[in-house]
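User: Can you predict the 3D structure for this chain?
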Amino acid sequence: MNAFLQGDHAAAPTSYQALIIALVLAYLCGQLIAWVYVFTHSGVSYSRSFVVSLIVLPVLVALVLIVMSNNIITAFGLIAVFAVVRFRNALRDTLDTCFVLAVIILGTGCGTQKFSSSVIGAIALSGLFIFLWMTASGTRHRFDLILNLRWTRPASELPAVGQLLQRHSLRVHVANQHFGKGNEAANLSYRVLLRDPSRAAELLTELAELPGVDRVSSVQAADESEI
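Assistant: Here is the predicted structure, written as structure tokens:
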């Protein structure tokens, strides 16, 4: 108990004010980069787990550098532990990797007698993981419904459908349009973000009653996140 109360046993004493500032600043920097990634991502596969990892990793790196405290022996020992874990296990989820890194860093802190840093770091990381889980940080939701309909009127009269969708939606994206030859009906697909998701049935009813709509169906748009 005395060893814990006396603080970290290392070559240089730990400044707890600097420790807290470092962890908070690392978290804020991670949040900034993560949300830039969310808003600029345009690939096919989007992973919420990766976004959360972008937030957690700066905190982990800041903590491990504080634990090492310019100690070359501790640094080599930590690298050796990372190598063993990577050799024995192939983790598919980046967030799982963050949890593994967290326990390795905290174990290293305890083993090098940096007790106070380990306790503060464990509390900070636990709070961060729980906060990100409760707030669903990194989740990206852009559409509520995928609408498929068959249009029998001329293509020049399609704005009637667009006007109806705009009245009910905050965002409308034309996912697919297939026009047949001559007088053949067109198959259309839209992705929409509704103003009020509870009124989706009302939108479907109005579409079905619109002259020129032969049939209409809807599918709930899946969350773009992989988890």
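The longest strand covers residues 169-178. Confidence is low (pLDDT under 50) at residues 223-227.
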